[in-house]
Amino acid sequence: MYDYYTYRPKTLTELAGQARQAEAIGFDSVWVMDHVFIQRPTGRVLAHDPLLVLAHVAAATSRIALGSLVLSYAFRNVVQLAREAAALADSSAGRFILGLGTGWHRPEFDALGLPFDHLVSRLETGVDPLQRLLVGEEVSIESAWARIDRASVAVTAPAPPIWIAAEGPRMLSIAARCDGWNHAYWGAADTARFRAALAGLDEAIGRAGRERSAVETSASIACVLDGWRHVPGGFSEPEVAVGSTHDLARVVRDYGDAGADHVILSLSPDPYAEVSEDALDSSREIIELVRRNG
Fold first, then answer.
1. Helix boundaries (H) for the chain
2. What is the pLDDT of residue 168?
3. What is the pLDDT of residues 23-59, one digit of tens each?
């Protein structure tokens, strides 16, 4: 979504080009973040609206799934969110995955004049009406965090799957009510944290009276191929998997063995995408190795 070194926001043409390349290489999905800005010591990260970006990507691609990792629920009224998601589900021909989270960056909330309290409660309140709106129901709710009266949105395609980014017990309970779960913490080669969170999700799914297979699981990994060169002053994820294509394919398989149905790779943890412009193409072998070895 942006240049990791200069923080320049990528244009929609650049993002669509990356998605087309990922589709041609053989990736299953592409993902965008949702931040109006992120304030860092060396500057402010800016990026275009994720749903508008994904609409552009949907028009530029034909097969690859496209999702939000993740939308901040706090930024949108639930009815407007349902309206936008329903349109994107249609325009993408069912390829859109609606990833949701609470939001976390306090400066962003303050700049937008949004409350930074009870973030989990607000999301808990919104998930059920969102699900109902996306299947065409007329919805009314009255709670401490939301009020809507006989709201409905245009629905012209099946509802997109809703994935929840979660690790704590309450968030995992929300994920257990939805279609998917993302462990959005960019873990590296060690799957222990993912496994612990997945155990909590399994318990939450059981309490909800659902089958384990009803919730797709996903893990996010920050990784770079050998040859990574640290850029002074560049942003870096706290944990990064570094190695050959064989090493990184093994990491992907390890997450699969740990219970991840879907593995999402961040190939730009310290601005690797700008250091090595062929990073995406070089990852082709990771996919081939994973598929070859199961």
1. 12-25, 50-60, 78-91, 106-112, 119-134, 169-175, 192-207, 245-258, 272-275, 279-282, 284-293
2. 96
3. 999 999 999 999 999 998 888 999 999 999 999 999 9
Give the burial class of 207: count Cβ atoms within 10 A of its Cβ; 0-12 exposed, 13-18 middle, 19 or more buried.
Answer: exposed
Q: In the chain, where are the structural domains located?
A: 12-165
Residue reference for tokens 């690790």 = 167
Structural tokens at position 110: 């303050």
3-state secondary structure of 278: coil
pTM, 2 dp: 0.95
Q: Which residues of 34-66 are buried (b: 16+ CB within 10 A; e: fewer)?
A: bbbbbeeeeeebebbebbebbbbbbebbeebbb
- CA dist 112 to 74, 75, 108, 144, 210, Å? 10, 9, 6, 21, 38
Q: Each residue of 161-180: b (16+ CB within 10 Å) or e? A: bbbbbbbeeebbbbbbbbbb
Residue 134, both tokens: 């996306």
Superfamily of domain 12-165: Luciferase-like domain (3.20.20.30)
CA distances from 68 to 33, 85, 149, 164, 290 (A): 6, 11, 28, 10, 24
- Give the residue among 28, 50, 13, 10 at the shortest CA–CA distance from 274: 10
User: Alpha helices of 135-219 — where are they, by DSSP H?
Assistant: 169-175, 192-207
